[in-house]
Specification:
- It is built from 14 helices and 10 strands.
- By secondary structure, the chain is α/β, with parallel strands linked by helices.
- Strands 1, 2, 3, 4, 5, 6, 7, 8, 9 and 10 form a 10-stranded mixed sheet that branches.
- Helix 3 links the parallel strand 1 and strand 2.
- The longest helix is centred in the N-terminal third of the chain and has 17 residues.
- The chain is globular.
Length: about 350
């Protein structure tokens, strides 16, 4: 594994673009792939300077995949650089975008749809666009619409009249959950904004009381596979995932923002069948003036220590440098772009 030179970083993350465009790099195709560095292999000591001080990393809900994946990456980067990359628990994508663009956190994870809204000043960010850069496209989130096994809900329309958790305020989950409920024209759903862990507890509490009393009837969550608190429901009250394939297709056709029609395999949660849903790519973002050293070492560690990162969460296995540059229109941080160029991506 590369180790940095412990010198004051040269540059402040505001270098002028090199002129390389991602369109031209993507055009390299198979030739680039053949010269790709294998993650985890060692090429000895690196001349890239070490970060001059600690940094912060906005993740997400406790025990959610953002928090788990981000924690694993932060631990590895801290180990490699000798400088602490501290994780901050947050409400998720929208919160992270506000923190990073507002210079309250150095890096963070966000969904592509929220990033696009923030960059263009639309949707949740209609009061004004934010400025930030990208380090990589990482893995995809999958929308989970979770109901207890005993629930009568099979389709989205069956959520009418029920209490559904749509994720915390300022979360990417709430953005996509609101879009799904609006597209499905479900207007008589009572919504709550609990954290992931509280939503799972609330769902289990009402299910254990045979659907009566306080609690929620369903929860919507956008996260990687598997999401641990949801997976643990299978050994208590048991759960099913609602098929949202029709609405997912309508959303993916109507609105640009990285939405993909996909499915959750049965093996992930011990389900009877695969369940059609909506997938949303995730971006690793950074404040525009993040030092080159922090940007470079974060990207380098993520790919060169990919096998170790998979020990923190299996979604790290989805990382691919060739797709990591696909963050348009969010610009890559100059040091991240330099890393991809040096590694023939």
């Amino acid at each position: 594994m590369d180790r940095p030179r412990f010198l004051t970083p040269a540059g402040n993350g505001l270098l002028k673009p090199t002129g390389l465009t991602r369109r031209s790099v993507l055009g390299l195709g198979a030739a680039a792939a053949t010269s790709l560095l294998v993650p985890g292999c060692s090429r000895g000591r690196s001349d890239e300077p070490a970060p001059a001080g600690p940094a912060t990393f906005a993740t997400g809900n406790r025990n959610g995949v953002y928090n788990t994946f981000g924690g694993g990456l932060a631990k590895l980067v801290s180990e490699v650089t000798g400088m602490e990359l501290q994780i901050i628990e947050t409400n998720g994508s929208v919160d992270n975008l506000q923190r990073v663009a507002g210079m309250k956190c150095d890096m963070g994870l966000t969904t592509s749809d929220s990033a696009l809204n923030a960059y263009e000043g639309t949707g949740t960010f209609s009061s004004g666009g934010l400025r930030f850069t990208a380090l990589a496209r990482t893995y995809d989130n999958y929308v989970h619409v979770v109901v207890p096994t005993a629930s009568d809900a099979v389709n989205l329309k069956d959520l009418s009249g029920l209490t559904v958790n749509v994720g915390p305020m300022n979360s990417g989950t709430k953005v996509v959950a609101d879009l799904i409920l609006t597209t499905a024209k479900l207007r008589n759903v009572k919504t709550t904004n609990l954290s992931l862990e509280d939503a799972v507890k609330s769902l289990a509490r009402k299910a254990n009381n045979l659907g009566r009393g306080q609690g929620i009837d369903a929860l919507i969550w956008s996260g990687g596979l598997p999401t641990k608190p949801i997976a643990e429901l299978q050994s208590s009250v048991g759960f099913r995932l609602v098929d949202i394939g029709v609405v997912a297709e309508e959303i993916s056709l109507k609105r640009f923002g990285g939405y993909i029609v996909s499915s959750i395999p049965p093996s992930v949660y011990g389900l009877a069948n695969s369940v059609p849903t909506l997938a949303v790519p995730n971006y690793l973002i950074a404040r525009p003036n993040l030092s080159d050293s922090w940007a470079w070492w974060t990207v380098n560690t993520m790919f060169r220590r990919q096998n170790d990162l998979m020990a923190a969460h299996q979604e790290a296995g989805s990382l691919d440098p060739r797709s990591a540059i696909a963050t348009m229109p969010i610009p890559l941080h100059p040091a991240a772009e330099r890393w991809y160029r040096a590694n023939h991506i």
